[in-house]
Amino acid sequence: MALTGRAALIAALGSVPIGIWDPSWTGILAVNAPLAAACACDFALAAPVRRLGLSRSGATSARLGDTADVTLTVANPSGRPLRARLRDAWPPSSWQPGTETASSRHSLTVPPGERRRVTTRLRPTRRGDRQADRVTIRSYGPLGLFTRQGTHRVPWTVRVLPPFTSRKHLPSKLARLRELDGRTSVLTRGEGTEFDSLREYVPGDDTRSIDWRATARQSNVAVRTWRPERDRHILLVLDTGRTSAGRVGDAPRLDASMDAALLLAALASRAGDRVDLLAHDRRVRALVQGRTAGDVLPSLVNAMATLEPELVETDARGLAATAVRAAPRRSLIVLFTTLDAAPIEEGLLPVLPQLTQRHTVLVASVADPHVSHMADARGDVDAVYEAAAAAQAQSERRRTADRLRRYGVTVVDATPDALPPALADAYLELKATGRL
């Protein structure tokens, strides 16, 4: 790297005899006037930094794990060419570890009166809003002896959205939904609550589906087909309290709950149902209501992007009251929360009748796969103790789930990867049996 400023002068004067060395700037200039003149000229020819015009364009959102390109336009209104090094600073979570230096630093040359663009490629590692920090520019003279340096504030925000990795399960769940809806040759007979059509009886049909009046009017035996009712209301309730902050693998439980909620929302909106979202701990953190089928998923993703677990105990009474207000008529309330005994027994169970007397309630909980691995471990004393602790934890979760089921609640307890498809299956089962 070329030396600049006073360091360059000292290096250039390294051969000056010690007897005439003066550590002050005046002494240096007196000893080597031609070099001082060159430095002064270099400084004068460096393009000014504060007069530069900077603006941004590019991505305003990206899914977690994807890249986002933000373009910075640098305009040079001066009469001198800009030879510069530029650092576009963003929060550390805007890049994968170790890639910040290569992604944020740029070299550029801007002729007088022109502009140039540089692109900063972000790859965020956390959800939420990533906001641009300062842009630092170091302008070099033609000899590289002196530089001008300054900073600019060029605001820009990139919203990092949930990754929605469970969308890979959507095609198979939609195929099952089409079967329930009678859109394929495989019909679900004798189930659901909404009459669809009549067709000719084939061996294997449920005899309870035979329409005897229609059969009497024609020569063939006619059976009724059914389809699940549409335009049902589903309220997704995310518990963002203390228990949602527990990490399962590399992410908090809240992130796994979001992924399952997005798959259910995508499936339910395709089924013709209306989907709302409530995020709550001691107060409402997010509320999405009244969105159309085409707008519901983007709205949910945008609302979830900035949600973070709050290290407070969830106010179960306030959560239940808010859910009842958000669902004024009969609905399916899907509550994403823990199955730990204490929060359920002290918080949810006392207010559960307030929900179940008017609504169908489904509790979805994220299980830790590490506990299952511990339960299977053997080999030494420590592993046996860990297995015993894991078995006790699993037994407590099963007891808690059984208590919820006695209230008529459907419980889905699965690991982060298994929870989204399991929750979608539970929803389809509710529709198939006419409970939704």
Automatic annotation (TrEMBL):
Compositional bias of kind Polar residues: 93-107
Chain intervals for the UniProt region annotation (Disordered): 83-115
Domain DUF58: 198-375
Organism of origin: Streptomyces lienomycini
InterPro entries for this protein: DUF58 (IPR002881)
Protein name stated in the entry: DUF58 domain-containing protein
